[in-house]
Structures are given as C-alpha cells and as structure tokens.
Amino acid sequence: MEFSLFDALTLIGSLGFFIYGMKIMSEGIQKVAGARMRQILRVMTSNRIYGVLTGFLLTSLVQSSSATTVMVVSFVNAGLLSLVESIGVIMGANIGTTITGWIISILGLKVKLADMALPIIAFGFPLLFASTNRLKSWGEVIIGFALLFMGLEALKSAVPDIKSNPQMLEFLSSYTDLGIFSTLIFIGIGTLLTVVVQSSSATMAITILMANEGWVPFDIAAAMILGENIGTTITANLAALVANSYAKRAARAHFIFNIFGVIWMLLTFPWFLKAIDVYMVGADYTSPFQDALSIPIGLSIFHTTFNIINVTLLIGFVNFISRVVTKMVPIQSDEREFSLEYISGGLVSTPEVSLSEVAKEISKFGKITARMSGFVRELINNKKSKNKTKVLKKIKKYEEITDKVQYEIATYLSKLPSAKLSLESSLRLRGMLAIINDLERIGDLFYQMSLSIEQKNESESWFTSDQVKDLLKMLVKLDEAFEIMNANLIPGSKEISLKLAIDKEKEINRLRDKLRKKHLKYLEKGEYDVLSSLVYADLFSLMERTGDHIINVSEGITGELAKDEEDVLD
Hints:
Blueprint: H1 5-33, H2 35-43, H3 48-62, H4 65-77, H5 83-96, H6 98-108, H7 117-124, H8 133-158, H9 166-173, H10 180-197, H11 200-212, H12 218-240, H13 245-282, H14 295-314, H15 318-328, H16 333-338, H17 351-381, H18 388-414, H19 423-457, H20 465-489, H21 498-525, H22 530-569
C-alpha cells in the first residue's frame, strides 16, 4: 500500500485537528485567567526564581510556551515587565512546555481519552450558551481538551504503517547513521517543522508518534526535540517584529537561551541519552534504544531534564543575557524620544523634587500629543497619499505611546509617600494626575479621527473642498491651543496664559458651532454624500472635544497655582 496524496492530506488535516483543539483549549484558559494572569505576571516576577516559577505555571496551564512568550513580549512592549523579569518567565515557560510531552506519552498513547471525547464535549457544549463569559470560557477549555485528544487519535490513525510502507523507513534510515551530521540534520528538521507548524507542542506530538511507530530511533527523535526548542523561539521573534526594541530584546533573549542549551547538549548528547537509558532500565522500563514503545517516556524525560538543567545553568546569568541582547538590539531614535528620561531612575528621596521631575515628563508628554494634529492634517489633505498607511500606523503608535506614558507617570506618582507631601505638593500631584489623563484622552481622540478618515478612505466619495478647508481651519485652532498649552506646561513657567487658553477654546467652540450650522444647511439641500456628512460631522466634533481637553490641561496648572497663592496669603 502506497502513501497517496489523500493519505498525506489526511495526515495534515489530523495535525490541524490537533492544533485547533490545543488552540481552543489554550485561548479558553487564557480567557478564564484573564486579568488574573496579567496580575500574576506583574506580581510574581520581582525575583528571578519567582519569574521562572511563574513561566512554568502559566505554560503548564496554557499548554503553549508560544502563548506565554508572546504574552511576555507584549507585556515588555507595554512596559509592564522589565527585560530581566521577562527572561526569568521565558526560562520557566521552557520547562512548562515539557508537560505537553508527558500528557501525550502517558495519556495520549496509553489511555483512550478519544473514546471519552464526545461525552466530554456534551458536558462542555451547554456552557457555551451560559450568561457569563467565564462559564463560556470554561466551555471552550473543556471542548478544546476533547478536540485535542480527538486530533491526537486522528493523527495516530493517519500516520502510515511502516510495515506497509517500508520505503518511508528506508528514506529516513538513510539519514540516521551519519553520526553528528544525523543529529544536526534532524535538529534542523525539528526547527523547520516547528516554524511551519508554529507550535512546539504539536511538533512534539508528531515526534513522539514517529518514534512510537518506529520511524526514527530514540537519539534521532531527541535531536528533533532540540530543534523544536530552537523553532519555538521563532514565534516570539515574529511577535516582536511589530513591537518596540524592548520587546525585541526579550525575544532575542529567548533565542539565546535556547541556542545555548542546544550547544551544550550537543557536546554531551551521547552520554546524556545513555544516562536516560540507564535510568529507565533501572526503573523497570525497557530501553528506549531497543523498544520503540519506551521512546515516548524517554523523550519526555529527555525534554524535561534538558530544560531544567539549562535553566539551572543560566539563571545566574540573567543580567549578562540582558546586557548581551541590549547590545544586539539598540534603542531606535524615536523610541528613545518617547521613553521616560526624567523619572526612569526611580524615586528620589525628596517627594517635591520627584514632582519637579514629573513636571518635565508631562511637558514632554504635551509635545508628543501636539504632533498628532499634523498627522491627521496629512490624512485629510491627501486622500491618495502613498504614505496613508504609514501615517495611520504612526497615529496608532502615538496613541499607544500616550497610554504607556500615562500609565508610567501615574504609577510613579502613586508611589510617592502622601504623608511626606505638603498640602501644596499634594494638590500639585492631584493636578498632575488630571493633566496626564487629559493628555491621554487627546491621544485617543486623534486616533478616533484617524479611524473615521480610514473608514472614509474605503468609500469612493471624499470630502468636498469646502469640508477639507473647514477641517483644516479647526486643526489650525487646535495647533494654536496646543502652543499655549505647551507653553503653560514648561516647568517653572512664571506666566500661565489662562486667559489666552480660554479665549482660544471659545474660538474653537464658535468655529464648531459655525461648521455645524453650515453642515446642516448643506445637508438639507442634499449637496453632501451621506457617508461624507457623517464622517465630516464626527471629525469636527472630535476636534472640538480635543480642544476641551487642551483647556483642561491649562486650567489644571493654573488652578494649582491659584490655590498655592491663597495658601501663601493665609
């Protein structure tokens, strides 16, 4: 019997079945954990040992080191985890992913869980219609668990019988007796397979099934597992492609950690496998070198022991790895511009001095939000601009930056000991919290404008020339308001132009009212496209709301100063 195209498609479909079940279960567990998982990552990473344990526990639950590492990369990108903290979590994730091998070796191959899969689905299916999201997520976990083992059973059935297909064994055998070159070849195959499948757990399942069916010997299967350890780092590096340099560093740290482990394992490979063989024979198992049925357990022991030893060897070098990847991935100029530079060194001993440093950061924050006006102007001016997509991405990036800056400044301010603050400083701190909230909302509003313009771009119609001119007039007013606001935000500024700020805000409101009346007049005449009118009205309303937040910033500053003066007079 030959292995036909239909058989190959059945094998690929079975693999897809297995991966889909794992994906459903993994996503369900992440939904169940939700914010709690994020809280665990933030709280349990202050110590590198805790970080390793956190990574192990999360990956054991989620059953995907890729999910954990991608999550870690996103947390580093958002500034919620430092590089050193992320390395510890990634190390633990490598140990946690070995649990999959044990599940497949002990349950998947020896216990017929697939026979119970449909009853399990019958139990989980009603939960999908529950009123609470948590119960729905538990339904996904249960169904995903059942689908995973149904997929594994389908995968076992789809793997061709070697006795009926000796040519496959002959093909593989021609590459299994080349010594160290065989090891390197199958490390490469394991890496490539993991990159293609995008799941080291799925590749582990394939490797165990191949070995269990007698396709490859124990040492070759172990070499493929080493390759899977390299291939799994690709997922995190792909996730980091669109992230900042800090996230790229975390992904590179994952790669260095796994590559180092593969290198030292290659140097001790024959003796390491021999030690596992001796242990299994002594524990009343048959030798994995002689009995294919013992290979799955042998591979699970190899995978777990290898990763535990690798973590033990490198856990003391976390800071060194951090320095290496820092040199590998330098901070880009724009990221350096958007990173906090005045309060990143931690709290200073005098709270009042800390507030002065925060004031500098807020002043810089104001300039960042003001730049977004120019991006929106570019989108309105040029419907067919080749840089349209680039500008939209830039606005989204700036919006994410405003979120991050607000979070970091607010976190810093929350650490200031309120008992040591004077009344003046306490009022100043409250004003700062209000100001950064307004600046973050300005970023959100500009992002909403870009989404409205993007929606407009997808239609054939565009704004009329009058509409474009009117929107640009509104942006000019906003730029003038920003100029006043940023002048007021300069630390130590003696003259706070509250009157100028209020007058400019009134001008923005009057222009908004004028545009609204003009818009309704033209709309009644039927001279506007319906979609154009909706987007146009949405834009000038968003611009007027932006002006409200700009004046809020100036009023926050002057309000503090007025209160200070009253206290001095008293």
